[in-house]
Amino acid sequence: MTREQEKLALDLINNPPPGSELAKAKDFGVDLTLFMSSLRRTPTERAQVLSAGSRLFHVPDLTRSR
Question: How far, in Å, CA of 64 to CA of 56, rounded?
């Protein structure tokens, strides 16, 4: 993302058009700045973050005998 694109995205997030889905999300309490932190990452970095987060849901199979 170029600096200009980032500036435009931040402006859109901070001042979403009235009635837009972004405005509805912001009014609902969604932290739209989290999108920016994701967009600043490369696709590989995003995949790594998602993979790391998925480890929270790993449930070991305790029924298997060793």
Answer: 21
First vs last Cα of the chain: how many Å apart?
Answer: 49
Q: Is 22 exposed, middle or buried (0-12, 13-18, 19+ CB in 10 A)?
A: middle
Q: What pLDDT, in 10s, does the model give residues 22-60?
A: 999 999 999 988 888 888 899 999 999 888 877 777 767
Q: How far is residue 37 from each of residues 1, 10, 28, 40, measured CA to CA in Å?
A: 11, 11, 20, 5
Tokens in use for 54? 């998925």
| pTM: predicted TM-score of the whole model, two decimal places | 0.57
